[in-house]
Amino acid sequence: MSKFGVMVMGPAGAGKSTFCASLITHLHLNRRSTFYVNLDPAAETFEHTPDLDIRELISLEDVMEEMGLGPNGGLIYCFEFLMENLDFLTEALDSLTEEYLIIFDMPGQIELYTHIPILPSLVRFLSRSGALDIRLCAAYLLEATFVVDRAKFFAGTLSAMSAMILLEIPHINVLSKVDLVKGQVKKKEFKKFLTPDSTLLEEDPAEVARRKAGLEPEDEGGDPQDKDALMRGSSFRRLNTAVAQLIESFSMVSYLKLDSSDEDSVGSIMSYIDDCIQFHEAQEPRELRDEEYDEE
Ligand SMILES: Nc1nc2c(ncn2[C@@H]2O[C@H](COP(=O)(O)OP(=O)(O)O)[C@@H](O)[C@H]2O)c(=O)[nH]1
Ligand SMILES: [Mg+2]
Hints:
Keywords: GTP-binding, Hydrolase, Nucleotide-binding
Organism: Phialemonium atrogriseum
Protein name: GPN-loop GTPase 3
Subunit structure: Binds to RNA polymerase II (RNAPII).
Family: Belongs to the GPN-loop GTPase family.
Shape: globular
Bound molecules: guanosine-5'-diphosphate, magnesium ion
């Protein structure tokens, strides 16, 4: 018997916890069972109380205080501690049936998704057959407002791709908070970001304006501490182009749109997740209860 789960990932503030809450509300409305696991040791408040909370095992605040670590080092310590105490997860998750969707609400520290092997180990542990055997899918959230700054958008997309390659599980990318860009970016323009390629950089309005004005990118040689000058420089632009071309050549990253306050939007992402983990294929046919007959 398999179990099913989704790992909600992405940078801090991308809307992960809000999406988890909307997902839980949506699933409950559709009479589905959820098991909500908070793995963010720095989380503070929740709309739905987690069924399992890493803060019962270890708190980031204690780690930072006792070990003298900053928030990023502290987070890594918490995850290493979790990996040494995997019973904490096994004991809570082992008895769940295939009817449940296990929702993992992840922290936002970006190093977790890019170059540290802790998450791949955790994913292997959760999905190993014969053990917990969770069929997992990753949902990587990036804020839609990033599309306003294309260099930032490609940097975010690179982190999404990095997580995708690192974790080797079915993966969907999501542009969250689309409601925030509705008035700002035209629909047709926004659509281009859903399957990003390097032409987005060439068509950047700031870039087009610069070309029209006959301005060349500034050459380096100025003060390396001057961040603004660095971001206008030609090497910064060459780096962005190379990143965009790399992403394009993998042609693996495309985005779904999400507005967590919109039930249909949440439902649509949920059906992608179900497809990824083949949730419906694994469900036992169940008999309708009397009250459900009445409603049909
Ligand atoms: N406008 C808008 N704001 C959102 C949406 N999702 C999340 N937020 C806000 O973004 C902020 C960060 O959300 P949170 O879920 O805590 O992000 P996390 O750090 O990724 O878990 C909060 O103030 C949320 O209210 C959305 O779909 N639309
Ligand atoms: Mg959160």
